[in-house]
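Input sequence (260 aa), recorded before submission:
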Amino acid sequence: MRRLFPVTDQTPPVSAGAAEAGDHDWSLDALADAYAYPEDGAWLRANMVSSLDGAAQHDGRSEPISSAADMRLFGTLRALADVIVVGAETVRLEQYRPARARAAFAERRKAAGQGPAPAVAVVSASLNLDFSLPLFTEPLVPTLVLTGAAAPSERMRAAERAGVEVVVAGDGPGVEPERVVRALAGRGLTRQLTEGGPRLLGQFVVAGVLDELCLTVSPVMTAGGAQRIAGGPSLAVPSRFALASVLEEDGFLFTRYRRV
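Predicted structure, token format:
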């Protein structure tokens, strides 16, 4: 992996035992340092992958357009987060499981006052979720469900019976993005990471609460009618982001943009 931007003469150090095949001079510690969260306040970061022709997935999943290096960064970003915010449809399509503790990041998380693994927060208006899945029954940190006050009462009761905490973050059937960020921050979950899907990311973009986008540009073309990384209604005026960094490996570009 090599840094293309910002240009610097400094070479990231390799931690003993941390480098893997293809890491070159980037260790997991170096990646974690490069992607460290700001120290103060809530910060919502998105991590997405896109093909060269704008597809966020292929055959309904992101894995076919990803790579080993992309998954290494994916794991690093998860290891830095307090909470992973994800839409219910993505949970179903990607077969989400609880976030796991990773030994390589244990000391870093302990020093930051974090638990062994990030919590997962599932956003769902309908609460049409299978609460018997490992995501809800086997997490190291209890999985949260975020919904609106008008969500179906029978599904609310189903979540309660399963011991799943439901957080109301909207007055209607769905959530309000600003309230999602505040509700999680109020629980001490300020280092926030969303992995989509496109509909949820679009909501965060339109509401103006997305602070940072980590976008992997995959060197593949898919054609077809796959979704973009963000969907839903468009903004009247496009939201401007500034380029913060670019890494490259095997033709994959790992870009990071911050809201201006």
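Checked by second reader. The chain is about 25% helix and 25% strand.
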